[in-house]
Structures are given as C-alpha cells and as structure tokens.
Design a protein that fits this description.
The structure is a single chain. This protein has a five-stranded antiparallel β-sheet, covered by helices on one side. It is of the alpha+beta class. Strand 4 and strand 5 form a beta hairpin. It is elongated. The chain has one domain. It contains two helices and five strands; from the N terminus they run H-H-E-E-E-E-E.
Length: 154
C-alpha cells in the first residue's frame, strides 16, 4: 500500500511538471509574438513619418522630382525615369547614401501622369526590403495618394 501512494505522488508530480512546461512554452510564444507585433508597429510608425515628409516636399516643389531630389535628398535618392523618385533609408530610418542593395528600407514617389501641366497626381509608398538566403523580398508598408495643383506661372 505504501508503494502505490508514492507511485501516485510521482505521477502527480510528473503531471504538474508537464503542465508548467506547457505553460512556459505558451508564455514564451506570447513574448515572441509581442516582440514581432512591436517591430511591425515601429516600422509602420516610421513609414508614416517618412511618407509624410516626402508628401510635404512633394507639395512644396509642386511634384517636381528633380527639384525634390536636389534640394532635400542629394545623396540619398535617385530619379528613375521621368516618373519615379526613390529615397533610401538605413536601419535607423535615416536617409542613407548607401547603394540600394545595402538599404533595408526605401520610399518612392511615383507620378501617375508626369506630363500634365495643371496638376500632378502621385503615389508615395514606403517599402521594407529583406534578403534571406539570396532571395530579396520587398514588402509595402505604407502608401499615400497625393495631388498638387501647379500654379500658372506667367
């Protein structure tokens, strides 16, 4: 009889240990998920700020991509064709003069109709760029539609 009580006690201890191990695993997963959600929120907040800053430049320069690049982002941007300006950012979300493949983030101003003489419509987007095992993935983080009227300059 004494032997079965110690066996029962041992089984209870094993069940308790398994329960606490399972609880610890669930808690660890919750902490990992909260860290991931926090990083996503940080990226989105910085994306909103970067896109807002670009929108202000866009309105100030009436959508002229060369003027925006030359005045505000001299070494940090490149004009692609006649309708796209790309600005590169480093890990701290500061404009970076590194090459495109070295920057984890970039934003773009894409003009929808660059030849329109009365107003300019565009889309400003922020992207995160990640390279894993030789494959580059680009993920859009935030986007904003912009339109500016071009004043009649006589």
């Amino acid at each position: 009889m004494k032997h079965s009580k110690s066996g029962l006690f041992l089984m209870e201890m094993i069940v308790c240990l398994l329960f606490f191990a399972l609880s610890a695993a669930v808690c660890a997963q919750m902490f990992a998920k909260s860290h991931s959600i926090s990083n996503t929120a940080i990226n989105e907040n910085h994306a909103v700020i970067a896109v807002s800053n670009l929108a202000e430049c866009y309105y100030t320069e009436f959508g002229d991509l060369d003027s925006i690049s030359g005045k505000y982002f001299k070494n940090n941007s490149s004009v692609i064709g006649t309708d796209t300006l790309r600005v590169y950012y480093d890990e701290a979300f500061e404009p970076s003069d590194k090459a495109e493949q070295d920057c984890p983030y970039y934003s773009e101003i894409h003009l929808l109709d660059p030849d329109n003489a009365t107003f300019r419509e565009g889309v400003i987007s922020f992207f995160s760029r990640e390279e894993k095992s030789g494959t580059v993935t680009t993920t859009p983080v935030y986007s904003l539609d912009v339109t500016v009227n071009i004043p009649n300059r006589k």
